[in-house]
Amino acid sequence: STRKESSAASDVYKRQMDGGASYQAFGEGLPNTPVHDLIVHPREKDLVLGTHGRGIYIGDVSLVQQMNPDIIAKSLHIFPMEEMSFSSRWGSKTWAWGDVIESKTNVNFYSNVAGSGKVEVMFNDKVVISNEIEADKGLNYTEVKLEVDESFKDLLEEEQAKEYKAAENGDFHLVAGDYTIKVTVGSTTQETAFTIKAPRERPGRKE
User: From CA 162, how far away is CA 100, in angstroms rounded?
Assistant: First the structure.
């Protein structure tokens, strides 16, 4: 039974990648130093490296674990976006001396070439956010702020537009709704869905 299970696990691994026949570097930001120990945290999906004299380094390998030959064969692949909830606290401070709470998300993608491009957020087929990027060959992690200008209100339904206003710091943000993320590198473009959920209502106090 153990031999069969081990063989099945090996077959899955080989289908996912190539069983070690080829390698790709995963060392951005890691100094040229001996690594004496490493472990992948099963819940956080972080690779933790213990080095000789240069401290501990932690890298997110959740995307690496999703890589497979089909993705590598593509010119461009966007990883699925996680849903997030709208917050009325965006653009305000938790405390008078604290930092402003930013509205942002990560757009993660794989490109088989390095080059100039852009990440766009679309709402009702209109581009509402556009960021120029320089993509690396391989995995890319791009932070996108969900800030827009006041003209975004013109795309909203009448009732929603009436309530649309600037945040405490004067910035405007995306509202709860369905969006499209578009990534372009060179002449290749891919799209994926992105949802901002309405905030969950807190239960009222019992009388």
Answer: 25
How many whole angstroms from its chain centre is CA 87?
18
How is the beta sheet containing 84-85 ordered, strand by strand? 84-85, 188-197, 177-185, 115-123, 126-135
pLDDT tens figures, 6-51: 444 445 444 556 777 777 777 778 888 899 999 999 899 999 999 9
* Distance separating alpha carbons of residues 36 and 167, to the nearest angstrom: 48
174 CB contacts (<8 Å, ≥6 apart)? Answer: 86, 103, 121, 123, 128, 129, 146, 148, 152, 196
Where does the chain show beta strands of DSSP type E? 35-40, 46-51, 56-60, 76-78, 84-85, 104-111, 115-123, 126-135, 138-145, 147-148, 172-173, 177-185, 188-197
Residue 138 to residue 77: CA distance in whole angstroms: 10
Neighbours of 162 (CB within 10 A): 10
Q: Where are the beta strands (DSSP E) in 14-166?
A: 35-40, 46-51, 56-60, 76-78, 84-85, 104-111, 115-123, 126-135, 138-145, 147-148
User: Poorest-confidence range of 91-95, 129-133, 167-171?
Assistant: 91-95
What residues contact residue 168 under an 8 Å CB cut-off, 6+ apart? 91, 92, 93
DSSP state at residue 187: T
Amino acid code (one letter) for 108: N
63: part of which helix (H) or strand (E)? helix 62-66
From the centroid of its chain, how far is CA 73?
21
